[in-house]
Write a structure and sequence with these properties.
It contains 24 helices and two strands. The chain is an all-alpha fold.
């Protein structure tokens, strides 16, 4: 029953809410993500965006959000979109990224306007605080719905499981597992299979790395994200740049296929709509625009100017759904095989493409995947912890962190099954409160947009 409900909500209802609602906010805001993109780039370079004192800055908040959203979906998700929708799906991913930038702008503005303070004086925000302070007490139930969903929707079920699967597929063979003394000894003592023990050891290792980062709180997460995001995106860019240069004669045909197939009417309007939906839907699930997770991280920024935070926040979808997903698409379209992929997993398609184009390419991609997956886990632990703190108080929230770490080990070992259905269900239950709130408070964001590039001060939040 849970899986059925999750499949329904995460289908067209979630697509219509995120994409349809995103388009509404995009046009209502006067296409803010198009008109003010140059301004956002200037604000990103501004020293004020990097000053944080003892807390985190707007730039660190952006890096942490990108660390969460740039993950397995940017590789496996793009491959799946190409298999299902062809090259044209990438064009609609770009459109979805542009719309998602507008949605993230609304999230950044509102979380800054309605942020509050913790007992130690550090700022905190999120969709739950926007609802309580922006919509009033009669909407408190919606804030609680978001917080409960956030506690479970941000557990790293997919990241832990898929990362473990990738490591097992890349580095282990049945013969290697049998010859490993540690794996064999533990398997004999426990009665588990050799592969299950290897998965358990991987899960424990991942959990140890995540623990070392997340117990330091948001400041350590932001610090790690600030250098990890440029590193992992940079090494990915260099890898794809090498693929493009070595296949330069094929690039024009690939770019032509993206635009040509995006508006291909050979199979009728229904097929065109299907391609658009596949591309836009994948992008929406990759960049988390409208889900509300970004409001939690940007709400922890020391910045108090809603317009500034909104401009910086809107760059997130441009980086992950625009830039990183395009890199994946180019690598796969130049060297991969999406025609006969059939039931091959998305990650395998990407690995085959990299291995074909670069000596040892699958190992290089494995390193990139490791960075992507770990960075997501770091930020997601903070999202869930803030939701737990909202519901049970700061003292009890630390227990959630340990619960989060334990689930990494569990989901590294067990099959996904119903766990994915539960995770997807809570993911949708985060998006509905967030998008409803953004739409209801859209007029406040509109007023903030009017202060951009003017000397008029941006509206400030209500007193804590």
């Amino acid at each position: 029953m849970i899986t059925t409900v999750a499949d329904f909500l995460c289908g067209y209802p979630l697509f219509i809410l995120l994409i349809g609602g995103g388009f509404f906010l995009f046009f209502y805001s006067g296409m803010v993500s198009l008109r003010h993109l140059p301004t956002a780039m200037k604000v990103l370079k501004d020293k004020k965006s990097r000053d944080s004192g003892n807390q985190i800055s707007s730039v660190q908040a952006l890096a942490s959000v990108v660390a969460a959203t740039v993950g397995m979906g940017n590789i496996a998700g793009v491959a799946i979109a190409l298999v299902m929708g062809g090259p044209g799906a990438i064009f609609w991913m770009w459109i979805s990224a542009l719309v998602g930038m507008s949605t993230k702008f609304h999230e950044g503005v509102l979380t800054t306007r309605y942020k509050t303070s913790l007992p130690d004086g550090s700022p905190t925000g999120g969709t739950m605080h926007i609802i309580d302070r922006g919509l009033g007490s009669r909407w408190h139930w919606l804030a609680v719905t978001f917080a409960v969903a956030g506690m479970f929707g941000t557990l790293c079920i997919m990241n832990a499981n898929q990362l473990t699967e990738a490591i097992v597929t890349t580095f282990s063979t049945p013969a290697w597992l049998s010859d490993s003394h540690i794996v064999s000894h533990v398997a004999t003592a426990s009665g588990w299979s050799h592969e299950s023990i290897f998965r358990l050891l991987i899960g424990l290792t991942i959990a140890a790395v995540v623990t070392a980062v997340v117990i330091g709180g948001v400041k350590r997460i932001a610090h790690i994200a600030t250098w990890l995001v440029p590193f992992m995106v940079g090494i990915y860019f260099v890898s794809v740049f090498y693929i493009v240069i070595t296949h330069i004669t094929e690039v024009p045909a690939v770019m032509k296929s993206i635009f040509a197939e995006a508006f291909n009417l050979r199979a009728g309007w229904g097929a065109l709509a299907g391609i658009a939906i596949i591309g836009a839907r994948r992008a929406a699930l990759v960049n988390d625009a409208g889900v509300g997770t970004a409001t939690i991280m940007h709400g922890a920024s020391t910045n108090t100017n809603p317009a500034r935070e909104g401009l910086i926040a809107m760059l997130g979808p441009g980086i992950d759904s625009g830039f990183v997903c395009t890199l994946t698409a180019l690598a796969i379209l130049l060297c991969g095989d999406i025609e006969t992929a059939g039931g091959i997993k998305g990650l395998e398609i990407a690995m085959n493409a990299f291995d074909k184009a670069i000596p040892g390419g699958k190992y290089l991609l494995m390193l990139i995947v490791l960075c992507f997956a770990l960075s997501s886990m770091f930020s997601y632990s903070f999202y869930g912890q803030r939701c737990a703190a909202y519901l049970g108080g700061e003292k009890r929230a630390r227990y959630y962190t340990w619960f989060f770490i334990i689930t990494i080990v569990i989901f590294a070992v067990v099959p996904l099954g119903i766990a994915v259905g539960v995770c997807d269900l809570f993911y949708a239950l985060m998006a509905f409160p967030t998008m409803i709130t953004l739409i209801l408070l859209r007029k406040e964001v509109k007023r903030v947009i009017g202060t951009i590039n003017t000397k008029a001060p941006a509206p400030r939040g209500k007193p804590a």
